Amino acid sequence: MSITEEISEKLQKGRAKEVAALVEQAMQEGTAASVILNEGLIAGMNAVGEKFKKNEVFVPEVLVAARAMNAGLKILKPAMQNEGIKPLGKAVICTVKGDMHDIGKNLVKMMIEGQGIECVDLGVDVDPQRIVEAVKESGAKVVCLSALLTTTMMEQKNVIEALKAAGIRDQVKVMVGGAPVTQQFADEIGADCYTLDAASAAEAAKAYFTE
Amino acid sequence: MSVRVKVPSGANGMILSEWLVSSGYQLSAHCGGRGVCGKCRVKVITGAFGDKNSPGDLLQPDREGYLLSCRAVCLCSEAEIILPDTGGTGLTEFEKKSFGGGGKGYGIAVDIGTTTVAAVLVDRSTGRIIGTQSSLNPQRSFGADVISRISAASAGKLESLRTLIVGEINRMISEFRKSYPDKNADDAVVSGNTTMLHLFCGVSPESMGVYPFTPVFTEMRQESGANFGVEIKKVTVLPSASAFIGSDITAGIAYCGLSELESPSLLVDIGTNGEMVICKGKSSDGKYYCASAAAGPALEGANISCGVGGINGAVCRVTKENGRIKYRTIGDKPVCGVCGSGLIDIIALMLDDEVIDETGYLEEEYRLNGEHITADGKPIDGEVESEIVITQKDVREFQLAKSAISAGIDALSDYAELKPEEIENVFIAGGLGFYMSVENAKRTGLIPSALKGKITAVGNTSLAGAISCLSDKENLNSVARAARNCVSYELNESPVFSKEFIENMVFPD
Fold this sequence. Notes:
The complex is a heterodimer.
Chain A: H1 3-13, H2 16-28, H3 33-53, H4 59-83, E1 90-96, H5 103-113, E2 118-126, H6 128-138, E3 142-146, H7 154-165, E4 173-177, H8 183-189, E5 193-194, H9 198-210
Helix pairs in contact in A: 1-2, 1-3, 1-4, 2-4, 3-4, 5-9, 6-7
Chain B: E1 3-7, H1 16-22, E2 41-46, E3 50-51, E4 66-68, E5 72-73, E6 79-83, E7 106-112, E8 116-123, E9 128-136, H2 146-179, E10 185-192, H3 194-201, E11 221-224, H4 225-228, E12 234-237, H5 247-256, E13 265-269, E14 273-279, E15 288-294, E16 314-321, E17 324-329, E18 337-338, H6 340-352, E19 366-369, E20 371-373, E21 385-390, H7 392-415, E22 425-429, H8 430-435, H9 438-443, E23 454-459, H10 461-471, H11 473-484, E24 486-488, H12 495-503
Parallel strand pairs in B: 7-10, 10-12, 13-22, 15-24, 16-18, 17-20, 22-23
Antiparallel strand pairs in B: 1-6, 2-4, 2-6, 3-5, 7-8, 8-9, 11-12, 13-14, 14-15, 16-17, 19-21
């Protein structure tokens, strides 16, 4: 097994300390930071995402794996900067106004970051106007909106309207998700993308940056 | 005690679980009738039922004759079923201290828990406890947790929910009158979480189900019993602070005397929600910093494959001595499942024996094998192997629950500008807190290991606080003061919570 495969394996098991040590070792052996990142850390996170999609693992596994990923990234960061590795791009993510439930949003964020995309996390209960400003400031290409309640899902529409009003609707892809949200609803409010789970959301987001 | 029930032909077309509930039978449905928890099993004696998910087909009972009543459709012919044991020993224990006295006559203190209802008959002149009763909250048939009760109330079941709890309290009062005919109580003090108090008062808790989670009332209510439908002269409902901090917590703050302590203190009630309160000490700002961490019902036995509440036969303690595993059950009864305190012990044991690693990974299902012993350590004949199995999903459910609580404590300490290690007095409230091994709670990371202060399991402080209000009027003022000085902190808004929730997902080394 190559060292990057080993990093991926340990990451999937959530063994943060071992991931950090292996990343360190790989760097000393002269493996390029981009290889460690893509074939080790991101590959591992993708594998977790796949299993999560198939209900083979649950939320804690994803969190434990993300924790291991962060431990690896911390070691890798200086080398990434030296090699000039930049994130694929930026995504703004938050739960909509009135919605305080952030476990789903945090999962999506972790999975998206696992794809090498930088997340501008606005947190919970976010006003449409703040989202518009964040898009303008960061130049994000993707906006991810989470709503867990039937009472707050209509806020996703309000965000899309606000982006239109600000004249920046065409600059971003709007992704919506949350327990009550469906493909039909996403179509009705004019969102660009709906996915059922966090791993699919991350894949869809990546496609927007690489297409 | 299990009950034999005749299902009449008139129930034709109804879902069995719904018919049972509407006919006044108590049924546990942790998942609210979605067919996933398996806790509403009934045994079929005669007759048959249709399959809700496959109209026209009969629902096949399992080998032992059990089926899920939430999936069974009553047919036009009569049937007879057995409802399994729904009674149980509720958890009414608390750290005894003198309640003082000085009142007149007798009173009844009631704690309405989401799971358990407890009532105590008190001699108000001495503060002495005459009798104790507990039972499972009959509203359970509408779902195990607060959210499903709020949903049911919003869907037109408010009056049913109110009738159930008021009926249960009246039943307890009449039990006391039967057992102690010369000790007639004329006052009742009622405590509970904010949702339970709304339901008891017949006030819709709907607004607490959605942001910004506003309760209709938090203030103390003192009215004639007749206004509540309770068969007693006067009823006092203790004051709450918010949707998440009910009078169960404000009574606990007063009972534990947090404001009297010189050094910083923490009160945690471990349950489906981990309510937590930090007080920075006598000479500090006089505030109670409160938060509620959504732990999920795992620690109360729900969502755990062999999980049960604190009922007779639940494995409640597991120890290992000289390499041999020994376990105890509530009431020394034959094993029927594992409750929260037992689960904590088993997880700690699995960690120590390296059955799971620090990430919680489990190779294959773990079966609890050991010696079943009584509370005083004697072996119970013929009970050498349990049916208790812990699955990977069970471990994950536990990780979510324990991480929410420990991350909540970390985040709340940070908000109160304290380090966890500066907290010198830790009070663990709730039935689980009373029975669990503090050592194992630390081993599994349920309680942050940074909490080095003195940890006391105080038990049901909601009930204890209500009792203290009966025996001394001044205590009522203390509870009201506590309610006024609570400052709520929203953990969802805390960056510390998000970070620690992920950090604490793994087990301590």
